Each structure stands twice: as C-alpha cells, then as structure tokens.
Amino acid sequence: MRLPLIAPADLSEAQKPLYADMKAGIASNFNDFVTTRADGALMGPWNPWLHEPRIGGAIWALTKAMSMEATLPESARQVAILVTGAHFDAAYELYAHIAVAERVGMTDERLSALCADIKPHDLSAEDNVAYDVAYALVNGGTLPDPCWELAVRTFGPHGANELVYLVGLYCLVSMTLNGFDVPVPEKA
Prior knowledge:
Helix content is 65%, strand content 0%. The chain is mainly alpha-helical. The chain has 2 domains: 14-68, no CATH class; 74-179. The longest helix is centred in the C-terminal third of the chain and has 35 residues, at 145-179. The chain is globular and about 50 Å long. The two termini are 19 Å apart.
C-alpha cells in the first residue's frame, strides 16, 4: 500500500468534509465488504481519494451518482464491474464486488468465470449485454455498433449511457487501486 490509511483524528480540514460524506455514503451503499479499519480509517479506493480531496471529491461525486442513482439491474451492474476489475486485475475491486454479486445471487461458477476473464455460460439476456459492452470497452477501441444498439434496446438510451459511464468509472477505480497498491483487507 503506497498511501497510509488516515485515522479520523489525523484528517486535515480539507479532508474532514469529504471523509464525512464518504463515510455516510459507504454506510448506506457499500455494506457487503470491509471498507473501514477499526479506528474509522477508510480503506479501498476511498483512502487514495481522501489523500487528494479536490480530485477524490470529484471522483466520489461520480461514484455516488453511479451508485445511488443507478437504473441498471444490479446483476448487470455487477457483471460489468467484475469484467472491468478482472481486466485490470484490481484485487480490492474484485474482492468488494464478488461480495455484492454473491448478495444478488451469483453462483461461484459465474464469479469464477468472470474473475478469470471468461464469459460465463449462464448469463441472462441483460447480463449478457452488460458483459459484451464492458468486455468490448475495456479491450479498447470504439464500442461496436451491434453492442451499442443491443444495449439501447435492452436498457434504453439512458441505461446504455449509464453502462458506458459505469465501465469508465470502474476503469478509474481499478487504476486507483492498482496505482496505489491498495490491498484486500485481511480475513478475520
């Protein structure tokens, strides 16, 4: 880990409001995995964002919009996030979103395939579209027209837009986690 965790008592004046907002958002939307140390220090991508409150605050605002105002089906969201995390081998992202995916009922077989960067055979129609869009985007180049058109037919124009932004956000999250060597929390 390249950036030390920041205990609440050690926050700067610039970090305190961002910490409070992140802590509240995490408590209401990110309960499936470990996000804080016992002393209240934030883990995962939140710690690097807290180190740079101006940049981190902007990323957190996007994260809140993409999480708290999501319209895509949760299973499709998790497929897209896991495809992205697997592409970048972002350990904390995979750890966190496996936990969320388990909550929404994904099987170990599906999770294993997604984390191995393999398309599972048991995807629903919506999850299949999410997989194809995410896979195409993280592998570079313009999203092929058939993928885009299928996303629009499946999720509507707003949902297709949201899916593209979701993959972009989790590319940024993956880069944050990998760039700052953010570890997976120790199992108790």
